[in-house]
Amino acid sequence: MLKEYLEKSNFLPNTALQNTILGVQACRFCLHSQKADCPILLSKDTDTPSFEMIFCCKGTLILEHTNQNPSIVQAPKILLLSNQSSIHQIQITQDLEGILVSIHTEQLYQGLQSFYALMGKHDFRTKQAEDYMQMHDGYVMIPQTPWSNAIFSTILHLPESEWEHYCIWKALELLYLLGTHNTSSFHIATNSRLAPAIAAIRTYMQAHLDEKLTIASLSHKFCLSPTTLKVGFRQMYGESVHKCLQRLRIAQAAKLLSTSTMTVLQIAQSVGYDGVSQFNVVFKKTYGLTPTQYRKMSVSVNICHIPQDR
After folding, report:
1. pLDDT tens digits along 275-308
2. Could you write out the DSSP letters of every residue in 177-241?
3. Which H/E stretch holds residue 6?
4. 3-state secondary structure of 36
5. 69 DSSP assignment
6. How much is the pTM?
7. C-beta separation of 265 from 276 below 8 A
8. Which carries the bigger pLDDT value, residue 95 or residue 270?
């Protein structure tokens, strides 16, 4: 991808690719104005790295897709590409500067074997990270957040000779977070093509609280994979499908306890619980009161607010 382009072009005047860890290379690049006119065509041959991460310190990249409008990455931002990216070429500005980290996951696995042993782990979850990237059309843009801002702030305070090494560790950190589906640190926006489907799923959940809603049933109904649904939902709403569904159910139950004469069992069943026992546990955990106590308190509050005759 970009690594091949930079190697063939004279864009590395001060540094060569650093091989700090097997399977991982990094380089600082500074593009010359006279060489920034032609678009970069992304190659995807058998030697293409699994991932490339660009820490864009200056300038702009315009990503041209096969089936979408162009996307813009402007400094200071981070772009993560996989070899399954839908991007076929990249336009660059004349002042583009940054650090490129290239990762071959198969080689990385061999290079980190001893590190895995120290952590008691068997792998770096690169397969999960690859699945995540495939769900996002093979590319992810990290916006300006405390996590990314701290990276660029640290780069500026490090000796230039350490920039590549530092970015390698941050690139591995990002892959680790993607592999655990923990993206709350950098708030990656849900792919725009998924947003309508995710929003429709939440609307459907709200309207069918009495049904047995599961990840499997929802993903089947809306033609999404379970992983796409779980990850996309968390990114869009900041909570899991299960947590959201539980919160919606308990909120609806509280409303019914205050405004209806339905029994506690009827209310529990109307929001998807088979019986009162589990419903009571979840309700009390949420409101600090049992459903019966909540209803009595609500009745008392309503009586206190009845206008008195004068």
Report:
1. 999 999 999 999 899 999 999 887 654 544 444 4
2. HHHTT--TTTTPPPPTTTHHHHHHHHHHHHHTTTS---HHHHHHHTT--HHHHHHHHHHHHSS-H
3. helix 2-8
4. coil
5. -
6. 0.58
7. yes
8. 270
